[in-house]
Amino acid sequence: MLAIGIVLVVFCCSEPLWAMRCGKKIVDVGDHKYEVLAACGQPISRETIGIDHKQVGEWRIVEEWLYIIEKYGHKQMYLLKFDGDGLVREIKWLGEQK
């Protein structure tokens, strides 16, 4: 019974697998890039990976940002993909930086 309670607490209180923690802020899919910048600062790398065509004559840049976040003494790498509206569409954990 105690084990079930512990498992429930871990799952309820931990951040989602598709999220990234910067300090006390959890960055999640749907956040705007200005929210990410405010929470996490400048990324290690910013790459333009495409163009989003919303309407005729309207072009928006699609970007990927790389962050290295130190968590519990380990450096974790995350890749965030932003759509043409500047919203996080995907967060990939790339593993631990050695």
Provide structural commentary.
The chain has 98 residues and is α+β, with helices and mostly antiparallel strands. It has a single domain, classed as Beta-lactamase Inhibitory Protein, Chain:B, domain 1, CATH 3.30.1450.10. The chain is built from two helices and six strands. It has helices at residues 2-13, 33-40, and strands spanning 20-22, 25-27, 45-55, 58-71, 74-82, 88-97. Strands 3-4-5-6 form a four-stranded antiparallel β-sheet, with no helix packed on it. The protein has a two-stranded antiparallel ribbon with strand order 1-2. Strand 1 and strand 2 (25-27) form a beta hairpin. The longest helix is centred in the N-terminal third of the chain and has 12 residues, at 2-13. It is elongated. The N and C termini lie far apart (39 Å). Mean pLDDT is 82; it is low at 3-16.
Detail the topology: elements first, then pairings:
Blueprint: H1 2-13, E1 20-22, E2 25-27, H2 33-40, E3 45-55, E4 58-71, E5 74-82, E6 88-97
Antiparallel strand pairs: 1-2, 3-4, 4-5, 5-6
Mean pLDDT: 82
Low-confidence stretches: 3-16
Q: What is the CATH C-level name? A: Alpha Beta
Strand order of the largest sheet: 3-4-5-6
Counted up, domains total 1
List keywords for this structure.
four-stranded antiparallel β-sheet; 51% strand
Short summary:
This protein is α+β, with helices and mostly antiparallel strands. The chain contains two helices and six strands.
